[in-house]
Amino acid sequence: MPRDRHGSFFEDFRLNQVIRHATPRTVTEAEASLYIALTGSRHVPHSALTIARSLGYRNRPLDDFLVFNIAFGKTVAEISLNAVANLGYAELRFIEPVFSGDTLRSESVVIGLKENSSRKTGIVYVRSTCYNQDERPILSWVRWVMVLKRRPQSIVKECYEPEFVSAIPSDELCSPGRFSSKVTLDEWCDATGSRILWNDFAPGERIDHPLGMTIEEADHLCATRLYQNNARVHFDAVEMQRSKIGKRLVYGGHVISICRALTYDGLENVLGVLAINGGQHVSPTVAGDTLYAYSEVIDKWNMPGRSDVGALRLRLVGLKNFIPVDVPSAQSATERGGRRHPAVVLDLDYTVSMPCKWLDGNSIGAHSPVDDVLSADPPVAFPNTGDARRPDLVS
Amino acid sequence: MPRDRHGSFFEDFRLNQVIRHATPRTVTEAEASLYIALTGSRHVPHSALTIARSLGYRNRPLDDFLVFNIAFGKTVAEISLNAVANLGYAELRFIEPVFSGDTLRSESVVIGLKENSSRKTGIVYVRSTCYNQDERPILSWVRWVMVLKRRPQSIVKECYEPEFVSAIPSDELCSPGRFSSKVTLDEWCDATGSRILWNDFAPGERIDHPLGMTIEEADHLCATRLYQNNARVHFDAVEMQRSKIGKRLVYGGHVISICRALTYDGLENVLGVLAINGGQHVSPTVAGDTLYAYSEVIDKWNMPGRSDVGALRLRLVGLKNFIPVDVPSAQSATERGGRRHPAVVLDLDYTVSMPCKWLDGNSIGAHSPVDDVLSADPPVAFPNTGDARRPDLVS
Amino acid sequence: MPRDRHGSFFEDFRLNQVIRHATPRTVTEAEASLYIALTGSRHVPHSALTIARSLGYRNRPLDDFLVFNIAFGKTVAEISLNAVANLGYAELRFIEPVFSGDTLRSESVVIGLKENSSRKTGIVYVRSTCYNQDERPILSWVRWVMVLKRRPQSIVKECYEPEFVSAIPSDELCSPGRFSSKVTLDEWCDATGSRILWNDFAPGERIDHPLGMTIEEADHLCATRLYQNNARVHFDAVEMQRSKIGKRLVYGGHVISICRALTYDGLENVLGVLAINGGQHVSPTVAGDTLYAYSEVIDKWNMPGRSDVGALRLRLVGLKNFIPVDVPSAQSATERGGRRHPAVVLDLDYTVSMPCKWLDGNSIGAHSPVDDVLSADPPVAFPNTGDARRPDLVS
């Protein structure tokens, strides 16, 4: 009995169903280089082996969003081949760094199902986890997609809408590389080209990133194939001519990657991405669009058991064909009348780590707990999450 | 005396002439990753080191068509720089797997020459072999091209038209990776996402592959440069504006690679390509074309001395701008009135290996020799081709 | 105090100012493969590990212009983000080969400043050096750029215009790989496909390279991102629509790389690039342009202490949309009336090494010093530059 090669429809999903996704993938230095070539990423831990080693890594960790895109790509065939829309992300945690030579596979569990009132589509919620060759989880996330029903009249009894935390709590975030001395921090700042550290950012602050990046068809195709994402909407111009937008859509993960690369100018000192608290592809991007980005600091707090680095919760807003200065913050989320600014393509709420200023042989974080800027979201206790979570760090 | 940098003309070729091609090439993990990024390949032995090792390989073998394209690219400067058309392939055998770190070079022997009646062109037949750094052949094939004469009036005495076998006999096919246990097979099927194995295919069966891939100029240029293929027709838009088609042509090997990548959905369990029995680029592909593919099972047989895998002889038909369901099989080869369906760009007859269903501690192939489906082509005896052919497999 | 993320203006530069550039970069086999895919390079030492080892290298050295482009990319953020024009290069020396695994960073010193009479711009001269992870210089060069002033009325007191040597003297050129025997040379010539060696070239000779390469947007974007060059003019189509040319500009280093790759047909036996004596991007290149190239032999001389290889000083002229045969040499530099031929985009004066013909167990270079072709530029004494300069060669 041949499996249906046209993907799953809403009726095919069951609550608690476990889906083991196909095509495990070994990632190498080449994926790291291609990611730089396709996105223009300049974040230092992924670019320079010297710096990665100073931070205690045995090699350059692969860019967090590169890992996400490969992990995500594996889930498309079974989850979203017949998706009308990728509605949102939540509770994404980067659990362990990924290095050249690791082999990644993904698995999903259906955690929610809700038919839409039109009865033509339904919303499928899945929690997906990416595992490495040692079966250790390296990344997990939730997403929900609107999926076509095979037939509007078919009856779907299961209905459950899960709820998600608004931000991953601090004690569930994994520890990033470690700044063991002021020398390491100085070397780091020389490498990033910036001395604006965790201490210098304040909630409410907005950073307009100066660069823009125009997307070509071949760029996003190449990236999406690199991720072995096989969704037709990205690849088949003949089919997409019949769609409302009339063109191939740029894979949302590529939009995230490009916007994130643009943030380098202004957020040079981001050490790693710890979590995506939530995110939405607000409107589609097509080849020819020029992407810009601005960031807002939502919150900041100490990292549990760490005085060398702190956490920043950021909002990354991706814009098409509008420079950030032309898009007021208020409008990005909801314009007057409840509609978003039409330029917004991406609205991502994520948490990063960044080194703190170093004082008296230690970082400022340890000496002046920044209680004034701690929001209600993070937990009050900061237990050390321990080395058990960082098996790939050189001890 | 500078060599002619404008390539060879028909008069320059001699029967039995040996041509050692230039620019040996070391292939690495990066070629494997670029191949995925440029074609969307998802075939598992090239994607996942874990699986490759389970099959007895010391590393991921490079994709068969990647190897072919690099080996082929080397022959262009001396064989087909002045080719009017690449007429066909035959007797292509994949002899040994290629791994990261291997250095490949190609050599050709002129095995046939035939002037055309117009006297403006002639057909050159060459048998080309690709060697690795240990001077072991890893791939050999025959192709014939229509080459311009320098001057119509020049006299060419040599004339010989070689004949080729319609399919490489089974005992000349090399053994692929080995499924040593049911565990390996289960792991494999989890990885490919399909449990449709060799036993499930029947000659005459047709598989319409669901995905389509629109080709961009930058895609095929990048791939063709990766193969160090320097044929002007792919690269020089100014020159090609003066040609009949008016545009740069997509390198035929890229068309094969894209169509082959499309076959993943439906032929997930192909283990490796053993041979190309014959093939033709039926009509040119240019940027902007969307490629689709369907496959027909021509034949199937046991592999000599192997109960874990069997051979499938497949016909891969590449289509441009038509989905497979709109192109009946009969029309692909020859339409009413003897003309092919205009959508057909590629017609390839090739042989692959695929694992068999596993029964009682062994695969079904060993227990039920599928005599009913064996064609006249393969030999009756299946001698074990021995480990001498698989020096790169971990014993 | 946030640094200005919009780059430096003319007023920001000081004579003798040292600028340590950000984002060190580890280069790998993947950069080598991507360079082949993006430029079509076929030069053998970078393509074949077997040949590289025969020449005494421990691995394939990365292509000289790949190294240059990565080293150069690092300097853009601080030097040329607000450059109106990249006016010229001089005194570029390749000091040491770069291998997979090396981490590169760049540093610049301001060596000249001159305000233009319009007072809207000024010329900044910098000497930049690229270092590897052991802090050994691997490449150094001078360039000068026209940079916008923040305000025309601001007063800049410093004014110094440095002068440069017209060609790097022989005793400052670094020794390339070594041909230890006739066997090595034969193997080399088999690999390059040409037996036209150093002895066969004469000053004044011109080589029209046959191939042309049409540039796509995605090609040059991908290359420029690979080099982590973040100049807006290459990436932001919205911004560039407001510019005089109305389009994104192809990064000049990509133009050099493409033209250099085209020279393979005719200069197959170039062993390595030793120096760029001077160079100019004569006019801009945009996507859609087709690049062609011709080379002129300016000069040739023995390499200090080396009888196996000689130096050739070459002029590489890059043309857009005109084949070389249509552009007379005289016109390239200065047409009648003092204007260049409009097709010229690149005029590069550089020095390469090439093996010499081998006679009586040694190369011809040792036996017949080619005094007749030595120009006044190279020094009369040829001291052996010693092994200290070649630490990466296997002894």
Short précis:
The structure is a homotrimer of 395-residue chains. By secondary structure, the first copy, chain A, is of the alpha+beta class.
Molecular structure report:
The structure is a homotrimer of 395-residue chains. By secondary structure, the first copy, chain A, is of the alpha+beta class. Chain A has a single domain (13-374), classed as Thiol Ester Dehydrase, Chain A. Chain A is 22% helix and 29% strand. The first copy, chain A, has helices at 29-39, 44-47, 49-54, 64-79, 182-192, 217-226, 232-235, 237-241, 252-262, 329-333, 364-367, and strands at residues 18-20, 25-26, 83-94, 103-115, 121-131, 137-148, 206-208, 213-214, 272-281, 290-303, 306-320, 344-355, 358-359, 362-363. Chain A is globular and about 65 Å long.
What oligomeric state do the depicted chains represent?
Answer: homotrimer
* Amino- and carboxy-terminal Cα gap of chain A: 51 Å
Structural class of chain A: alpha+beta
Q: How would a crystallographer describe the biggest sheet of chain A? A: 12 strands, antiparallel
Which range does the strand content of chain A fall in? 25-35%
* Rg of chain A, alpha carbons: 21 Å
Q: What is the helix content of chain A?
A: 10-25%
CATH class identity of chain A: Alpha Beta
Greatest contact between two chains: A-B, 41 and 45 residues
Question: Low-confidence stretches of chain A at least 5 residues in length (pLDDT < 50)?
Answer: 365-395
Mean pLDDT score of chain A: 88
